[in-house]
Design goal:
The complex is a heterodimer of chains A (about 425) and B (about 220). Chain A has about 425 residues and is α/β, with parallel strands linked by helices. Chain A contains 15 helices and eleven strands. The mean pLDDT of chain A is about 90. With about 220 residues, chain B is of the alpha/beta class. Classes of the chains: A alpha/beta (about 425), B alpha/beta (about 220). Chain A: Keywords: Flavoprotein, FMN, Monooxygenase, Oxidoreductase.
């Protein structure tokens, strides 16, 4: 456990709750308004967050246009260019974006992130994903989605090439790589930032995903909903990291956490119910089907239980999480759909600033987390309230920094310079 | 203000003559002085190692909030990109800069680009001119994914966009197969520029930050 917990602000244009954009105070046009994204990043910096984080998909998130049209997820900024803009209007907060190993070339991606790292003076990070969506695959050729294991084989080779290109000791030298998926005979040829190389982030929780993270990642995001599951995940990843000959303290595990912060517990149910009521049935169901990577829910009664589902080539670990929870709590399809639409499979925390701090403290002190990736339901209010009410409570308890310790992302995360 | 203010500036020369802080100063001064267009080079390192420019499109994203009116063009080759990704990044830059971004279609150092972008796996035997033509067609088509009035933001009715105003591309070609649509909204007043050097009109090439600063009438 480090002295202070790490905090990431997981920013999305309109919020993590699928219906968050419909909230009267949500900025619904955030996906086309750069000023809004600037304000969110500056709010995170005011709250001394380690980093802001953006997810990504190279395509629509929902294949049925009638459903996509009821949610706000079909438009947004391309995240690496967004990081570049945010680098100009922030000075301390880390800038982390997601990019796929399936639909990029490692040299192009390494160069883009190294440029963000340069212009931000050492604050960039890359979240490696392998892309599990058929919708994305259809934008990049006709071969369709690769098998899970094949995607990770390509991702491992991709990560190795990127790390060689980023190596500050050899930035003007030629990298020689010839492998199954890539052939690179080239160097980046421009200076490294003060943190040496961008931070490597991953979120794959499957067995091969964990091994890749243990070998290559500095930060791992994870969807866990109980202390026990989070602790088991962190213990496992630290053990795998040691097995790869790395210091387990050099990998920071940050579970996603979806807070609904209220001034009194009496408000809690109302505030949450207000959001849940905004989810249309068909939208919630489609989101659930997408997470489960299945079409087996079509035509089933919404008040009935989840059917038995076969393992898919999509997100294997997340699928199991959804199924486990529905069985554990005896939930109907509609209930599961609403539950997951609300927090997207992440840990939901509803309570006062003190309640939220209690829970974060328990996970952090108990060794279930090095920090948290905060996923507000809608923006900007729910990030503001976390920064204004929860952060001071964490600081008062000595759990969170009162000043940035470093100018670089590696420095603030307590990672060595690359 | 100098009387012979260039209309368009093309940054050129050796990357070591463009330290980042000086580059930033040049761009800010060019914008304030009223230079209309800035062309950012995107040269990768030579095959045998050596100096390179950082990524032009990322530099443009960094320049955008630091400038108000100058048009930001990246002189970028398509060889290291996929059309969906490049169309997205340019559309995003157009939003970030409020309609000031664009692509100068450039030929890079083909030898270096093959070596950097897995050319042996991806590009061997490919008709690069035909690939380039198809690439541009796809990018152009993806920028028509959203009608200008597609987004409704209707919170009460739960209608974020109007489905009939979103268009798939369904491109099936020799080199690319791209269903679309793009997941970046177009800038309200148009779309990113797509052009070539010979269509830019008079362009002043500056070979170093010092030369640029001298031209713009201010010391470093």
């Amino acid at each position: 456990m480090s002295e202070h917990m790490k905090l990431g602000a997981f920013l999305m244009p309109t919020g993590h709750h699928i219906a968050g954009w419909r909230h009267p105070r949500a900025a619904a046009d955030a996906g086309i308004d750069i000023d809004h994204m600037v304000r969110l990043a500056q709010t995170a910096e005011r709250g001394l967050f380690d980093l802001v984080f953006f997810e990504d998909a190279a395509g629509l998130r929902e294949g049925r246009v009638d459903l996509a049209a009821q949610a706000a997820r079909s438009v947004g900024f391309e995240p690496i260019s967004l990081l570049a803009a945010l680098a100009a209007v922030t000075s301390r907060v880390g800038l982390v974006a997601t990019a796929s190993t399936s639909y990029n070339e490692p040299y192009a991606l390494a160069r883009a992130f190294a440029t963000v790292d340069l212009v931000s003076n050492g604050r960039a990070g890359w979240n490696l994903v392998t892309s599990a969506s058929e919708i994305e695959a259809a934008n990049f050729g006709a071969q369709g989605l690769r098998a899970h294991r094949d995607r990770y084989a390509r991702a491992g080779e991709f990560a190795d090439v990127v790390r060689q290109l980023w190596d500050p000791a050899t930035r003007n030298a030629t990298v020689h790589h010839r492998g199954e998926s890539f052939a690179v005979e080239q160097g980046l040829g421009f200076p490294a930032s003060p943190q040496g190389a961008p931070v490597m982030v991953q979120a794959g929780a499957s067995d091969v995903g964990r091994d890749l993270a243990a070998r290559t990642a500095d930060v791992v995001f994870v969807a866990t909903q109980t202390f026990e599951a989070a602790k088991a995940f962190r213990d496992d990843l630290r053990a795998r990291t040691s097995a790869h000959g790395r210091d387990p303290d050099a990998i920071k595990i940050m579970p996603g956490m979806s807070p609904v912060v209220v001034e009194s517990r009496a408000e809690a149910e109302d505030k949450f119910a207000e959001l849940q009521a905004l989810i249309p049935d068909d939208v919630g169901l489609a989101l659930l089907a997408s997470y489960l990577a299945t079409d087996a829910l079509n035509g089933l009664p919404l008040d009935g239980p989840l059917p038995d589902l076969k393992s898919t080539e999509g997100m294997q670990s997340r699928q199991q999480l959804v199924i486990d929870q529905s069985r554990r709590d005896g939930l109907s399809i509609r209930q599961v759909a609403q539950h997951f639409a609300g927090a997207r499979g992440h840990w939901r925390l509803v309570g006062t600033p003190s309640d939220v701090a209690d829970q974060l403290e328990e996970w952090f002190v108990g060794g279930a987390a090095d920090g948290f990736n905060v996923m507000p339901a809608y923006f900007p209010d729910e990030l503001d309230i976390f920064v204004d009410r929860v952060v001071p409570e964490l600081q008062r308890r000595g759990l969170f920094r009162s000043n940035y310790a470093s100018d670089t992302l590696r420095g603030n995360l307590g990672l060595p310079v690359a | 203000m100098p009387t012979d203010l260039p209309r368009a500036l093309f940054l050129s020369g050796s990357p070591s003559d463009w330290p980042l802080g000086d580059l930033q100063l040049v761009v800010q001064r060019a914008d304030v002085a009223g230079v209309e267009t800035l062309v950012v080079p995107d040269g990768i390192a030579p095959r045998d190692g050596g100096e390179a420019w950082p990524d032009a499109l990322i530099l443009m994203g960094w320049f955008a909030p630091q400038t108000r009116s100058i048009v930001l063009l990246g002189a970028v080759s398509s060889l290291g990109h996929q059309p969906y990704n490049l169309a997205r990044r340019l559309a995003s830059l157009d939003l970030i800069s409020r309609g000031r971004a664009g692509w100068v279609i450039a030929d890079g150092d083909a030898d270096a680009e093959f070596a950097a972008f897995s050319g042996a796996n991806r590009l061997a035997g490919v008709d690069l001119a035909a690939r380039q033509r198809e690439f541009e067609t796809v990018v152009d088509g993806l920028w028509d994914s959203w009608d200008a009035d597609a987004l409704l933001f209707d919170k009460e009715g739960g209608r974020f966009f109007e489905p009939s105003r979103l268009h798939s591309l369904n491109h099936q070609g020799e080199h690319f197969s791209v269903r679309g649509p793009l997941n970046v909204m177009r800038w309200q007043k148009g779309r990113p520029r797509m052009t070539r050097f010979d269509k830019l009109g008079p362009v002043t090439t500056v070979a170093s930050a010092n030369a640029a600063l001298a031209l713009l009438g201010g010391g470093a």
